[in-house]
From TrEMBL:
Protein name, entry field: NAD(P)-binding domain-containing protein
Source superkingdom: Bacteria
Any Pfam family: NAD_binding_10
Gene Ontology MF terms in the entry: oxidoreductase activity, acting on the CH-NH group of donors, NAD or NADP as acceptor
Gene3D superfamilies on file: NAD(P)-binding Rossmann-like Domain
Domain NAD(P)-binding: 11-195
């Protein structure tokens, strides 16, 4: 059976490195797309800025995982521009695009009129970030030419949390585990992302994942 081929964009980041690690563990041939020297466990490397990628760079992959993140106010618009660029590169191809998303845009009402970021308890400092990621998702929904999947983490997304190996997939609405929590570690999120890349069929859908 042919080995799956995957590219991880921004593979040097915390989430990116863990996603690469989990993919390699599953026997996937991984190419890291990085601006600087590769610090992940990927077998292959494309050393290029995301915005300098051309269609030929991403040709032939079964899946491309977008682990891009921007945190400073002047770079927040790049959530939209970077995702648009990747979509343009993959337009009309069979390659799946899986996006490391945010939790702020998850819905908290059945009619989908209110989101997590709208709540009074949502940290004010994170509103701009959640808003920019939510806008990027809204723009992604309009792309009928790309086989995308957007994976939102739990509200409490723990960079240094332990790996449990137990997680639950959900849909567009915020949901809680049996302890009443919305939490997941980066490590468990990375495992869930790879599971979705291998087995999932959520084409042009946003899904979510929390620790069981």
């Amino acid at each position: 059976m042919k080995s799956m081929k995957m590219a991880v964009v921004c593979a040097n980041g915390k989430a990116g490195r863990l996603i690469v690690e989990k993919a390699v563990e599953r026997g996937i041939e991984v190419t890291a797309v990085v601006r600087e020297e590769n610090r992940s466990s990927a077998q292959n490397v494309i050393q290029k800025d995301l915005f300098s990628l051309v269609p030929e760079d991403l040709a032939g992959f079964d899946a491309v995982i977008d682990a891009f993140g921007a945190w400073t106010p002047e770079k927040l618009p790049q959530h939209s521009s970077s995702l648009k660029h990747l979509c343009d590169l993959l337009s009309g191809t069979w390659t799946r695009l899986l996006v490391v998303g945010g939790a702020g845009s998850l819905y908290v009402t059945p009619d989908h009129t209110a989101q997590v970021m709208d709540g009074p308890g949502f940290p004010e400092a994170f509103v701009p970030l959640a808003g920019s990621m939510g806008q990027a998702l809204d723009e992604l929904r309009k792309r009928g030419d790309v086989r995308w999947t957007y994976l939102s983490p739990a509200c409490d997304f723990r960079a240094d949390g332990g790996e449990t190996g137990k997680y639950l997939f959900g849909g567009e609405e915020l949901f809680l585990n049996e302890k009443g929590e919305s939490v997941i570690s980066y490590a468990d999120y990375a495992s869930a992302m790879i599971e979705e890349a291998i087995n999932g069929s959520h084409i042009r859908e946003r899904i979510s994942v929390i620790e069981a």
